[in-house]
Structure formats: structure tokens, C-alpha cells
Write a structure and sequence with these properties.
127 residues; mainly beta; Immunoglobulin-like; 4-stranded antiparallel sheet; 3-stranded antiparallel sheet; 1 helix; 7 strands
């Protein structure tokens, strides 16, 4: 029974998610206290990233501009691509919206979505 409910919650996180084919690799996982989203964004500065809550959705926008305008240079090889993508995750009910943490470290954007008290497991005493 626990597996089914966890699977359902993770499916809710994946619902309504869209991204371009070249978007960054992502891990989504949980423990008893929180859901976690880790997105690879190598070389992207935090100023190019916008994370916001929009109703029941977590929206992540990454808009990294080209370092060099193509019209200014003749490229012989262009293997570095700019990361421009938007991801939208429908949040499951029970997320503590006032306790969402976002950090960018070593090219990984890490988002922690703390579960509210009502989502945490509780032990019920037997009378």
C-alpha cells in the first residue's frame, strides 16, 4: 500500500512536465521528509534561472543566452549549446509551500520540497 501511494505522488510530480529534447538531465526522488529535484545545468549562472510557484505548479525557467553572437564570428565548430528550457511540475498536495529550498552548486540545481506535517508518517497508539 505504501508503494502505491508513493508511486502515485511521484506520478503527480511528473504530470504536466514539458521540456525541450536538449534539456538538462533530472533526478526526482523522495524520503519521509521531502521531495527532491536535481537538474544538471553546467555552466549556467543563477541569474539565468527562475524558480517560482504558480498555483499548484513549480515552474523552472532556464534562459542562458549565447556567449557570442553568431554574426560576430565565423565558427569552425560549435559544440557548446545554450541551455534554454522550462519545466513545470504539478505539486502533490501536502507540500509545505513556505519551506521550499533551491540551491545551485557545481552545475546542479537542487530543489527541496518539504512535506507538510499532515504528509509525514504518524504512529497511532493502540488503546
Amino acid at each position: 500500500m505504501r508503494f502505491d501511494s508513493t508511486f502515485d505522488l511521484l506520478n503527480q510530480l511528473f504530470d504536466d512536465c514539458w521540456f525541450e529534447d536538449d534539456a538538462a538531465r533530472t533526478d526526482i526522488y523522495e524520503d519521509e521528509k521531502a521531495f527532491y529535484i536535481d537538474i544538471e545545468v553546467p555552466g549556467v549562472k543563477k541569474e539565468a534561472i527562475n524558480v517560482k510557484l504558480d498555483n499548484e505548479n513549480l515552474v523552472i525557467d532556464v534562459k542562458e543566452g549565447n556567449e557570442k553572437e553568431e554574426k560576430d564570428y565565423t565558427f569552425y565548430e560549435k559544440g557548446r549549446v545554450c541551455m534554454n528550457f522550462t519545466r513545470k511540475y504539478k505539486l502533490p498536495s501536502g507540500i509545505d509551500e513556505g519551506n521550499i529550498k533551491v540551491k545551485l552548486e557545481d552545475g546542479v540545481l537542487s530543489i527541496t520540497l518539504m512535506k507538510s506535517e499532515k504528509m509525514l508518517p504518524k504512529t497511532i497508539l493502540i488503546e
